[in-house]
TrEMBL record:
Domain of life: Eukaryota
GO cellular component, one term: cytosol
Record key words, sorted: Amino-acid biosynthesis, Flavoprotein, Methionine biosynthesis, S-adenosyl-L-methionine
Gene that encodes it: Contig12344.g616
GO biological process entries: homocysteine metabolic process; methionine biosynthetic process
Species this chain originates from: Stylonychia lemnae (Ciliate)
Alphabetical list of InterPro entries matching this protein: Flavdoxin-like, Flavodoxin/NO_synth, Flavoprotein-like_sf, FNR_nucleotide-bd, OxRdtase_FAD/NAD-bd, Riboflavin_synthase-like_b-brl
Alphabetical list of Gene3D superfamilies matching this protein: 3.40.50.360, Nucleotide-binding domain of ferredoxin-NADP reductase (FNR) module (3.40.50.80), Translation factors (2.40.30.10)
Protein name, UniProt field: Methionine synthase reductase
Length: 608
């Protein structure tokens, strides 16, 4: 079949991104804004729009051989080297297209595609650049051709270090590939655009058993906060526990003890009204299908994400702003609205383009959602998920120190607004820490948990599961937990629960022990001999020969699991350093990498 695409014609150009926490989304958006001035036909899509319909038209379809296509992919990784949720459908498409191919075998399915990839990642994760590398290798296998080298940006050093030079070189490379494509002769174009034998290909694709993948399709559902409690823990901090109930049942394939879900917080009524009043906006005015009020409530972040002031300054005449404001470069919409003069000049359209969107917030669960108390067994679906977080009790210098998500949840709880609908998201890719049930309960492989502060949460839900199945098992593997707190009298979170489960575990395992490191003060409390205490940080337990011997034995001989959860810089790096330095080189970086690859070292570390 002769194609209608003619030599000399411009290719279709797509900027395609997948992003979990917004970085790739933002970079692709910024790039697209300038790029589309030179190439007005270029289009930008999120990867999951592949082969979907938008306003009655196909959004983008790389499989369709209707034209030559230039694609700029920007993607991060999440979970364990997985694609962000909003790229998962495209990844599935790539898997389907390639699973009938042997290793090293290629097809021509995407021979009409010319592409490059920018990968964002973090080398602290074992599958560094998992998703971009997967994307690159599958595109190649399907015959797509690279026109500019893939770049690997690393958050552990600095994303900008790689992103900026890559973006600088990108324009020239696009210009040059377009020039090249326009010079292709018709015969070559026809060859690239010849459809592959669909029947033969489809037969192979259909033969693939897709069952396991479909179970793990991420779930977006709405839910409500149905209750919770506030417990003071220190003079200035309190602990909030919040219980969510989802509208749809959530499968245990998507979340289980140890893992997290995310939800979209909303701005408070008070903040929305404040901003509307300051800017003199009409709350019912429409932007697309949403009113200004809707956008302010559910879409744009008023209090925690910052907008780029320089952009607003050049787009609108904001010379009246005081110097101190201009110097701040980035500012939240709320802070921006504090400068009270001449705000009638600022149109509400900034909500669409300039104000950052609300980002999803991830929380590990602290309950065992899948244990059915009546049936006394673990079931496959659940509606109720509990989380917890610490909060400063008081405002500091008149400023509310709460983040958007935490104040959102606290307000709902305090004002009992339990009917408010919240968008929630469950994905298998949030399963970093998990409970290796068979290995721990049947094979008695040991578990080592290391955490501090609220990093304890994934372990609390795992311990809940162990408590729930306790009666039905004679023996358990050894379980040791090294828990770091600031003060054991004030910040010993989940104290009663921990003492209870460790009392039980000691009866049914050879050696299970709770180790408590208190960094600022250590009380005289003995906890009935149940807790081994120490002043210092968690890794100071590595000074203790018996702790070192256990960790060595559990990991190197008994194939146990080490799970670490907490802040990357204050916990993660120090614990890894301790493992490197205090164990006679048994846990060098390469040894730890091996443990990560075999799944025996699980790291859930977050930035400040
Ligand atoms: C829960 C979680 C899991 C992650 N897993 C990986 C990973 O397996 N490999 C990797 O290279 N980076 C991983 N990262 C790092 C992200 O890819 C990195 O932060 C990136 O800048 C995020 O970009 P985004 O905001 O566009 O999603 C992970 C980050 C988080 C929060």
């Amino acid at each position: 079949m002769e194609s209608t695409y003619k030599s000399g014609q411009n290719p279709q150009i797509y900027i395609l991104y997948a992003s979990e926490t917004g970085n790739c989304e933002q970079i692709s958006q910024d790039f697209f804004e300038t790029f589309s001035k030179d190439y007005p036909n270029a289009k930008r899509f999120v990867l999951n729009d592949h082969q979907t319909q938008k306003n009655g038209q196909s959004a983008f379809d790389l499989q369709s051989k209707d034209a030559l296509k230039v694609c700029i992919f920007l993607t991060s990784s999440t979970g364990d080297g997985d694609s962000p949720d909003n790229g998962e459908i495209f990844h599935k498409f790539l898997r389907k297209q390639t699973n009938h191919l042997e290793e090293g075998q290629h097809s021509t399915a995407l021979s009409h595609v010319f592409y490059t990839v920018l990968g964002l990642g973090d080398s602290n994760y074992s599958k560094f650049q998992g998703a971009p590398r997967f994307l690159d290798s599958k595109l190649k296998q399907l015959g797509a051709q690279t026109f500019y080298d893939r770049a690997e940006a690393d958050e552990a050093t600095s994303l900008e270090l790689v992103v900026e030079p890559w973006l600088e070189g990108l324009n020239d490379s696009i210009n040059s590939i377009i020039r090249k494509i326009k010079k292709f002769d018709q015969e070559y174009i026809d060859q690239l655009l010849t459809p592959i034998d669909v029947n033969e290909h489809q037969a192979q694709v259909d033969g693939h058993d897709d069952e396991n993948e479909s179970i793990k399709t991420p779930l977006m559902t709405y839910g409500n906060i149905i209750g919770g409690k506030i417990t003071p823990c220190s003079p200035d901090r309190e602990l909030l526990e919040i219980e969510f109930k989802t509208d749809k049942p959530v499968s245990r394939d998507l979340i289980d003890v140890g893992s997290a879900f995310s939800f979209l917080p909303q701005n408070s009524e008070e903040t929305i009204n404040y901003v509307i009043e300051k800017f003199k906006w009409d709350r019912n005015a429409l932007i697309g299908n949403d009113t200004v009020y809707d956008l302010l409530q559910k879409s744009v972040d008023i209090v925690s994400e910052k907008l780029k002031l320089s952009k607003v300054l050049t787009d609108y005449d904001l010379q009246f702003l005081p110097e101190e404001a201009k110097e701040s470069k980035h500012i939240t919409l709320k802070d921006f609205s504090e400068y009270t003069v001449k705000f009638d000049q600022i149109p509400f359209s900034i909500l669409e383009d300039d104000v950052p969107k609300i980002k999803e917030r991830y929380y590990s669960i602290i309950n065992d959602p899948f244990y059915d108390e009546k049936e006394k067994q673990v079931v496959e679906t659940s509606h109720t998920f509990k989380i917890c977080f610490g909060l400063h009790k008081f405002s500091v210098r008149g400023q509310n120190r709460f983040g958007l998500a935490t104040s959102f949840m606290k307000d709902i709880l305090v004002n009992q607004e339990f009917s408010r609908k919240i968008k929630m998201h469950f994905s298998h890719s949030n399963r970093i820490i998990y409970f290796p049930h068979k290995e721990y309960v049947q094979e008695l492989k040991p578990l080592i948990f290391i955490c501090h502060g609220t990093g304890i949460t994934p372990f609390i839900s795992i311990l809940e599961r162990i408590k729930n199945i306790y009666e039905s098992h004679e023996r358990f593997g050894d379980l040791i937990m090294l828990f770091g707190v600031r003060s054991d009298t004030e910040n010993f979170l989940f104290r009663e629960q921990l003492l209870d489960i460790f009392t039980k575990l000691k009866l049914k395992s050879d050696y299970s022990q709770l180790y408590l490191a208190s960094s600022q003060s250590l009380s005289e409390e003995t906890y009935n001999g149940l807790v081994i205490k120490r002043k210092g940080h968690v890794q100071s337990f590595f000074e203790d020969q018996s702790v070192r011997d256990r960790i060595k034995n559990y990991l190197l001989e008994k194939e146990g699991y080490l799970m670490i959860c907490g802040n990357k810089s204050t916990l993660g790096q120090s614990v890894i350093k301790g493992l490197n330095e205090k164990f006679d080189e048994l846990f060098s970086h390469s040894q730890l990498d091996k443990l990560k690859q075999s799944g025996n070292l699980l790291l859930e570390l977050w930035d400040d």
